[in-house]
Amino acid sequence: MNLSLLLEMALEAMPERRVLGGARDGLSYAALDARVRAAQVKLAQTPAERTAYLGLNSPSLAVALYASARLGRAFAPLNYRLTDAELARLVARTAPAVLIADDDMAARVPAVEGVTVMTRSAFDALPDCQGEAPSVWADESDVAILLFTSGTTGEPKAATLRHSNLASYVISTVELAGSDPDEAALVSVPPYHIAGMSGLITGLYGGRRIVHLPAFTAEAWIEAVQREGVTHAMVVPTMLQRIIDELEAKDLHLQTLRHLSYGGGRMPTTVIERALRRMPHVDFVNAYGLTETSSTVSVLTPDDHRAAFHSEDPLVRRRIGSVGRPLPHLELEVRGPQGETLGAGEAGEIWVRGDQVAGEYVGRKVLRDDGWFPTNDGGWMDEEGYLFVEGRLDDVIVRGGENISPGEVEDVLRAHPAVADVAVLGLPDEQWGEKVAAVVVARQPVAEAELRNWARERLRSTKTPEVVIFRTALPYNDTGKLLRRVLKTELSAAPATA
Known about the structure:
Blueprint: H1 3-13, E1 18-20, E2 27-28, H2 29-44, E3 50-54, H3 59-70, E4 74-77, H4 84-94, E5 97-101, H5 103-106, E6 115-119, H6 120-124, E7 143-148, E8 158-162, H7 163-173, E9 184-187, H8 194-206, E10 209-212, H9 218-228, E11 232-235, H10 237-250, E12 259-262, H11 269-278, E13 283-290, E14 295-300, H12 302-310, H13 314-317, E15 325-326, E16 331-335, E17 348-353, E18 360-361, E19 364-365, E20 373-381, E21 387-392, E22 397-399, E23 402-404, H14 406-414, E24 419-429, E25 433-442, H15 448-458, E26 467-470, H16 484-492
Parallel strand pairs: 3-4, 3-5, 5-6, 9-10, 9-11, 11-12, 12-13, 25-26
Antiparallel strand pairs: 1-2, 7-8, 13-14, 14-15, 16-17, 17-20, 18-19, 20-21, 22-23, 24-25
């Protein structure tokens, strides 16, 4: 099974259904197929082994992805938010390749041996192919997509996703042509994010029309939902917070929206509770996954959300902060430092196993011989199998031999009415090894002592921030992940000031 076959199955089942773009002027499967075959003809004229893509979301993304798949070439979407120097290094790593670049981005790409640059306008202008197009039947073990990590701790790693990994995820989670003809999904995460690629692949297989938002703002997102009658969408936590702010400020309602999934970072409980109150008709899903697992491995379902939100049982209520239970076709365990499987309530490292799990980078395989992948995410499971993710193990604060989860402290501080956003991290300390520091974005004036007392009343004293620093904003990358290490590096280099 490979990506080409998934598209062929959808094409055969729904040739005239509109699948990309607007409800009136979007591409049907048959029209998409014609464009893909034209791209195959053009790309096959180059000796490239890969296709790189540098640009915003657009139908061209799907054309380039599936043309590459039909030619047996790996597809590598690149992060256009990198500096020119960083981008140049990434482009060089894709060689030999054809790079399809948005017209205003092509000039950023220097001449690189083995890389041919094609502007998106030239790519989009290719005449539809009326005859046979060259193709290569990709083996399921071949590389389908290369996704470069954010690289906050060094050069980005190239995560390798093979056809078998992606096909397993799609077949296990989506029914062929299972979407109603009126369904439309808004994809607003960038192409170089696993959610952007998996949303495209699963949408095309399921038959749900895909509307791409080139660049996210809350206003543009809401306008697109209303204009296109969007029924399904996926956002990261920072996006959802801005969307809810906009809806509340303007008293807007999204009547067509039925299903909203979120992931890619820790969702503050206060934000999802506001969303549930604002949009009670929407089915919310928290999807936890990683690039290396081809997307989602655990889901908090709509029923789980509503049960937790309305429950007076604290053990059920807290599940609104969980990522739900593992998908049935996967195995997931929490393990201790010696690799031992831990029981309910015991915190350790999350491990996952299944056909969709790649656990591989170019030049380095992380997947164990028995198929298990250590995620480097810390977490624990409750008695009913609900998974709570505490964050990257590298971010855990070790104070006097005690492991402290930043997320736990952040949740407590974020509940204070004066706190709009917060990041908790460990800073060097001669006596304890590390001390707990909180970087706070306040929505109204508040004293450092008040926040410390607030935390102390709800947490053990060892978890109370010893340092509180006020900022006007926290650093996030464009996929909504808090750049905690950026803050740690900055604050460790200079004395902390309130």
